[in-house]
Amino acid sequence: MLEVKDITMRFGGLTAVGGASLKVDKGRIVGLIGPNGAGKTTLFAIIAGFLDPTAGRVIFEGSDITPLPAHERAKLGIARTFQIVQPFAGLDVRENIAVGAYLRHARAAEAHAKAEAVARRVGLGGDLDKQASSLTVAGRKRLELARALATEPKLLLLDEVLAGLNPSEIRDIVPVIRAIRDEGVTILMIEHVMQAVMNLCDEVYVLAQGKMIAQGTPREVCVDPHVVEAYLGKGAADRLRAEEASHA
Amino acid sequence: MTRRGYLPILLVLAVLALLPFAVTSNVVLNFVVFVLIITLAAQGWNLLGGVGGQSSFGHAAFFGTGAYVSAILQVRFGINAWVATAVAVAAGAAVGWIIGFLSFRAGLRGSYFALVTLAFAEVLRILANAAGFTGGAAGLLMKLDVGFWNMQFTSRAAFLWLALGFVAVGLIVSQMIANSRFGAQLVAVRENEEAARALGVDVLSVKLKAITVSAALTAVAGCLYLQYFLYIDANIAYGLWISVEALLAPMVGGRGLVLGPIIGAFTLHGLGEASKLLAGRVPGIDLAAYGAVLILVVAFAPGGVLGLLRKLRFRSQPVAKTAEETA
């Protein structure tokens, strides 16, 4: 469904992403993990059309969408959420979600009905008339998700929707994400909360210093020496193995 | 949902339409006509600056284009006033689109956009002041020829109704936009451009649509001004005064709200006239009153008069959500 081919993104002398590739198959939840500053959000911005890559291509459903602007990609069915939530602060929850719903529903009544349905689905049904600015962090994350869902995407890009939530809030929202996938939406998610990654993802890519260093099931990736080193420093994998050997 | 918000509009229009039956004083009717013309210009500004958050400091460019195109067509080519007005409004809209295309495509926002619009208006003012076919510094004087087909009326009441008719169109257009997809997208652009783009909003095209409609409304104000006073020059048509009037009224009345411009225009000019009456003949006292009102609004009522009223009503009934709140 989505294929990212050899994406390179340079900001002046800094290479944020260097030749990264990934593939997301229809109907899956794919995770993108990596240490801070690895270039995950940059890669997301390129997929969603917010940044033009220095090199490389983005293929969506078989066609090259690299030159398309963000709003055109949204029309094709790519929706993203923002790591730092971006609510329309002056509007209430219903109006916020309706902006997304208007993408496929021209009439106000339909868009509002759609917005209410989506709000109930992500657990914001009781907050429809609240100002977006009065929501809690968890509420804003849900709103971010709801707005993206209201565009009726085929591919949903979730940028750390679980960050900043407490364990019980995470427990509440994980089934929501799984339900979205079960309804036929393919998901690519950046996530730091490993418990959720292990739980949700069918496949995980690991980005470190702009390069894809590993790929596989969550379990495979966790024990990959390259990944351990990317997070804990060079030689960490060997030390861990040596320690385990001495304990045995 | 779509019928929401029309009742207060109807009420305001009805009161103003019946006014000439209650008041015959030409001073009062003159005042109301003038304020209605300001209201139209302000309605144009409010759509772009209030709803869309793109504050322009140069709506004189559209007001002046409306006035000049209409005047030139009538004076130099003898074209019918109604036709000239229609063409002039189209010309104003075109100028709006061009200024919008140049500045929005370059990504100008906030104070940069405000400064560029100011610059465009000033350039037009200087050109109109210098060129021959605009009458140069002497301006353009229209022939007094009263009659419906010339859009000139001896009765102040007739002109009041004409202006009110246009204001009504402005109010209905604004309310329709507020209830529509375009309106929701425009507000989204104001609140957060990045998020709007992510939700499939074509930001450039939404802004261009807004500035075009905005310019058209303000151009109507220019045409009405011409028909009422029958004289324009560069400093009237493209002057800074109208840019300021167009943005002050919505700020005072309630930025982004459909009734904001009309409430603001009447509040501002009402207070201006009242201060003239009270303070006698102190020159410029009405302008000083403007300044004071503006400072008070910015400091204590950023939502304008309507925002203040809403706040007071909320305090008295904190739970109930009013119809206008969601409209």
UniProtKB/TrEMBL annotation, chain A:
Occurrences of domain ABC transporter (ranges): 2-234
Protein name: Amino acid/amide ABC transporter ATP-binding protein 1 (HAAT family)
Origin superkingdom: Bacteria
GO molecular function terms noted in the UniProt entry: ATP binding; ATP hydrolysis activity; L-isoleucine transmembrane transporter activity; L-phenylalanine transmembrane transporter activity; L-valine transmembrane transporter activity
Any Pfam family the entry gives: BCA_ABC_TP_C
Organism: Chelatococcus asaccharovorans
Keywords: ATP-binding, Nucleotide-binding, Transport
GO biological process assignments: D-alanine transmembrane transport; L-alanine transport; L-isoleucine import across plasma membrane; L-valine import across plasma membrane
SMART domains linked to this entry: AAA
UniProt-listed CDD domains: ABC_Mj1267_LivG_branched
GO CC terms: plasma membrane
InterPro entries xrefs: AAA+_ATPase, ABC_AA/LPS_Transport, ABC_transporter-like_ATP-bd, BCA_ABC_TP_C, P-loop_NTPase
PROSITE patterns named in the record: ABC_TRANSPORTER_2
From TrEMBL, chain B:
Source organism of this protein record: Chelatococcus asaccharovorans
Gene Ontology cellular-component annotations: plasma membrane
Alphabetized InterPro entries for the sequence: ABC_transp_permease, LivM-like
UniProt topology in membrane: Multi-pass membrane protein
Protein localization: Cell membrane
Gene Ontology molecular functions: branched-chain amino acid transmembrane transporter activity
PANTHER family listed in its UniProt record: HIGH-AFFINITY BRANCHED-CHAIN AMINO ACID TRANSPORT PROTEIN BRAE, HIGH-AFFINITY BRANCHED-CHAIN AMINO ACID TRANSPORT SYSTEM PERMEASE
KW Transport (keyword) present: no
TM region positions: 6-23, 57-75, 82-104, 158-178, 210-231, 238-267, 287-309
Record keywords, A-Z: Cell membrane, Membrane, Transmembrane, Transmembrane helix
Stated name of the protein: Amino acid/amide ABC transporter membrane protein 2 (HAAT family)
Any Pfam family the entry gives: BPD_transp_2
Keyword Ubl conjugation recorded: no
